[in-house]
Backbone:
DNA sequence: GTCTATAACATGATAGAC
DNA sequence: GTCTATCATGTTATAGAC
């Protein structure tokens, strides 16, 4: 049922998604939702939290596998992990990208706070990979990278010609070397 | 009043914004809106169209000014123009980024169609600037760049230490050369 | 061109039976 | 844990006076 809710939130945004739709998609009636969640806002909060968990877990898996690899390989693994969290691990992570602006302010504020942990993981990683670049610049580069990664859900089609591995390679290479061939 | 509507759509998303809010913010009553627009969807459509106009106009201005400059300067001018459309020219362009996913499918489909024109301008520009790179790769690089540019509205503060000119320079340099210092 | 009033309906949430 | 009501309210949209 959390999954059903997340899918609808992703598809229509927070306020356009009704509890009746969620209930129907989960095979129950609307009133029954309140036995599990005290409010619609709280339900959405749980969906977002789940999304963060998926991303954090993907990050740590990538970190374990590539801890002693060269910098470009490590970066590629983490880019691939983030994209995997978006495209392969359900609608929870995607909700952060599509439904964030349609959520009430209180929910947004909570989500931002919880996302900090994940973003700090990335900051530490980049500082570790590129010790010669100062941290302020690196923080900007991270935001640019995040923007590029998250916006892929607006145009990337996992069933298309380009695979996720290839997409990760393109984004990583663009991040490291720019467009110059 | 279009401006008031756009600001509210940006702040709360499509469906969380009510006609009463828009009317109040415009200094009239809700019923009066229907003398100007036939429906809420149509009102939002007009807001989005206005946003595209702003972006296209910014593009052409940048093109006129830098038509015979070297490639990096031309790219920088266009990046700056796009960011200017987002941060300096009102809430119409921003609506495309923040309120897109909370809008009804019909409105989304229209917006996508209308945005094609603007995206084609960019495709032509990049093909012109980087003739040595094949067009398929360049199309991917454009999508990555767009993602980075549009997502700046989630974190960039025009009143902060970093200026728009500096932001444009950082993004352009990252796009051309990557993070390596 | 704006107002008031209202129709017609959808929404989040609650109460109590089973 | 799910159901069937139902409440109270808010929503888009319309009709007609001014």
Residues:
């Amino acid at each position: 049922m959390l999954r059903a809710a997340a899918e609808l939130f992703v598809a229509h945004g927070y306020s356009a998604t009704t509890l009746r739709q969620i209930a129907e998609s989960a095979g129950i009636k609307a009133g029954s939702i309140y036995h599990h969640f005290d409010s619609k806002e709280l339900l959405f909060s749980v969906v977002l939290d789940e999304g963060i968990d998926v991303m954090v877990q993907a990050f740590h898996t990538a970190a374990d596998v590539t801890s002693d690899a060269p910098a470009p390989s490590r970066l590629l693994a983490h880019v691939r992990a983030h994209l995997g969290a978006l495209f392969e691990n359900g609608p929870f992570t995607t909700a952060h990208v599509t439904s964030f602006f349609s959520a009430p302010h209180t929910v947004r504020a909570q989500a931002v706070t919880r996302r900090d942990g994940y973003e700090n993981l990335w900051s530490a990683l980049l500082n570790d990979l590129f010790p010669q670049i100062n941290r302020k610049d690196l923080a900007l580069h991270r935001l640019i990278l995040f923007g590029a990664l998250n916006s892929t859900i607006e145009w990337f089609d996992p069933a298309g010609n380009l695979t996720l591995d290839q997409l990760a390679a393109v984004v990583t290479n663009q991040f490291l070397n720019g467009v110059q061939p």
Notes: Chain B touches chain A through 42 residues (CB under 8 Å). Chain B has one domain: 39-177.
